[in-house]
Design a protein that fits this description.
With 457 residues, the protein is α/β, with parallel strands linked by helices. Helix content is 44%, strand content 6%.
Length: 457
């Protein structure tokens, strides 16, 4: 049986406002590092979607005292001597290490870390600028086997891995909140609920590639790790009281191998508005323009939507201009940014128009997994019935165990199971199928038996 990386629910765009979570974005598409919790089944944004103003973070509770630093704001570590001293200080500390990272999503193509914050008992808080250094492996060595504490680990682990840091053990405060079935799991909300302090998140969507970083931004960044150790201990106590601590340990262990979402194929097909286009030639135009934009965005290290909005790609694909003069006349070419690469856009259009019929992209591409469930009732009614029964089982079990349904078992795994169940359906075969695709032992134990009954009903 093929083995897959485990699926994790992760927040998608700016800051920790108070709504449930989603999956990680493709490079260059999200707008901030810690996003508002949003419905787990929300539609992800298209790659290179037009840059809109980031979501406003929630206002802190005016009735609670604001969280403040216990120590003076530390200077940014950006020299070799300061970095060496930080590594020594972290190594001297005791207990777990609170870690956070800030990226420049919505501004830069890359998802690299532009600031890494750490706090440890006996060491204090450190704000490390990774840009001047080849990597942060010396800092990783200083932490050693000590536990990392992160909030929404799947947001930060890829960029920290890229910088040479990788946990041997971790505790994710956001995921702990989900397993406790808390209605809101943003960092600010958890700090209010468990520690009685308000935490402002006004700089969550900032351009962290800015140098020098303003002091208010640095204060914001330092506060993100100020009480993670205390929050971790309180959440662990709640998990133990609820009988869910072993579940949490299994979830945290699975996160140790998380390196980011699997790369998507044909990302150009997610261009916003392309559903209005008809014909394979128009699809080829979208593809060539999208790939040209992505190449330019990567070269300039800027988010694709800042190079050219999706609406411009769709307009150019619709008009299919045959020369630069005709291209200049399009409404979308009036902006200076779009005209900056005028010859590149025309070259992409010419390439699409020159393709032979058998080179044009197909109207739709069948993915590796099952088709969207909305099509099942007509094309595969037996699978639609199985899916409905399986979903009822998951909902019932989630209520019984006080869990969000998506944390009890990944909805994607349930769809795959309903679409193509094991040949010989039994609790053992269903459990093996789920485990082979990343489900943790505690999840298999809770759902395998009842899902097997649902599949054979």
């Amino acid at each position: 049986m093929t083995s897959f990386e485990p699926e994790f629910l992760v927040p998608r765009a700016p800051d920790p406002s108070d709504q449930p979570a989603q999956r990680a974005p493709s490079p260059g598409t999200s707008r901030a590092d810690k996003t508002p919790d949003a419905p787990a089944d929300a539609t992800p944004p298209a790659d290179g979607v037009d840059d809109a103003p980031p979501t406003e973070p929630p206002a802190p509770d005016p009735g609670l005292p604001p969280l403040t630093l216990r120590d003076p704001l530390p200077p940014v570590v950006d020299t070799a001597d300061a970095y060496a001293e930080t590594c020594r200080a972290i190594a001297r500390g005791t207990g777990p290490v609170a870690i956070d990272a800030e990226r420049a999503s919505g501004y830069r193509y890359s998802q690299r870390a532009y600031l890494v914050q750490l706090r440890r008992v006996g060491s204090g808080t450190h704000l490390v600028d990774p840009v001047p250094f080849d990597d942060l492996t010396a800092l990783d060595d200083a932490i050693g086997d000590s536990e990392w504490i992160l909030h929404a680990a799947t947001q930060d682990l890829p960029c920290l891995t890229e910088a040479g840091m990788r946990p041997r053990a971790l505790f994710d405060t956001e995921l702990a909140g989900r397993l406790l079935n808390l209605p809101r799991v943003g960092l600010a909300t958890l700090v209010e609920q468990f520690l009685g302090h308000s935490l402002a998140k006004e700089h969550s969507a900032a351009d962290w590639s800015t140098r020098p970083l303003p002091d208010p931004w640095l204060l914001y960044a330092a506060l993100d790790v100020e009480v993670l150790v205390e929050l971790r201990d309180l959440l662990e106590a709640e998990l133990e009281k609820a009988g869910k601590l072993d579940w949490a340990h299994q979830e945290f262990e699975a996160l140790l191998t998380f390196t980011g979402p699997a790369p998507k194929t044909d990302r150009w097909r997610r261009t916003s508005g392309m559903h209005r286009l008809r014909g394979r030639r128009n699809l080829a135009l979208v593809r060539e323009l999208w790939e040209m934009r992505d190449e330019i965005a990567q070269r300039r290290d800027t988010t694709p939507g800042r190079v050219l909005p999706d609406a411009a790609i769709v307009e150019m694909a619709t008009a299919a201009p045959t020369d630069v003069d005709e291209l200049k006349g399009l409404r979308t070419m009036r902006g200076r940014g779009a005209r900056r690469h005028l010859n590149d856009w025309q070259r992409a259009i010419d390439a699409a128009l020159a393709l032979q019929e058998d080179e044009l992209p197909r109207s739709s591409v069948r993915g590796d997994g099952p088709p969207p469930p909305r099509a099942w009732a007509e094309k595969h009614p037996d699978a639609a019935d199985r899916l409905a029964r399986c979903r009822d089982v998951v909902t019932t079990l989630a209520d019984r165990h006080d869990l969000p349904a998506e944390n009890l078992i990944s909805p994607g795994l349930v769809r795959e199971l309903a679409w193509e169940p094991p040949a010989d359906i039994s609790p053992e075969s269903v459990g093996a199928a789920l485990a082979g695709k990343g489900a943790r032992p505690w999840q298999v134990e809770l759902v395998a038996s009842l899902l097997s009954e649902a599949l054979t009903a």
